[in-house]
Amino acid sequence: MVQKAKILLVDDRPENLLALEAILSALDQTLVRASSGEEALKALLTDDFAVILLDVQMPGMDGFETAAHIKRRERTRDIPIIFLTAINHGPHHTFRGYAAGAVDYISKPFDPWVLRAKVSVFVELYMKNCQLREQAALLRLQLEGGGKAAGADAKEPAGLLAELSARLAAVEEQAEALSKQLDDESADAAAVATAAHLERKLTGLRRALDALEPGTGSTSSVPSQN
User: Fold this and answer.
1) What pTM does this model have?
2) What is d(CA 183, CA 54) in angstroms, rounded to the nearest whole number?
3) Is residue 49 a part of any domain in this protein?
């Protein structure tokens, strides 16, 4: 069973949160509410999120300050942030949003279809990264445990390598399809860059896996996939 991605919705107005939930419910992911910047930071202490939709104008800690805190934390600095704002103070205000670490800056009222499409791209990238980490962990278990995975029956090294190769091939195929989709739709530069980063990590993992194939004579350690 595939675990759902979590999407953090941050807005001090309940009606806005309700509207976001209505727009994003079709993605069939886990939507988490936060009514303030402080509440959002607490949620980020314990859960992993695929993307954050962050309102700019909030009492107390506004969206810019909240984003600054998110980007300072090692655990959360790489989570994509989409700023939502009901006002537009011109290019300077937009630049401040990007400078705070946002991957996008959307003014209200926005097109629900466009917002859902943007969020779905980051959800897909998050899921692919989760799959990649899983394959890397299995490969490390092969190297460190001689083919025995914790809590699982022992497998012959050749059999486990074949299983890992097949799983990795499935992730590679999905990542390639996603990259083509981003190219076709002229997606945001941030989403394209994230997809390219994912493909580079996949390439590194494939090389490490190929090096373990019989006859290569290599048992070098697996490169970090963080």
Assistant:
1) 0.65
2) 26
3) yes
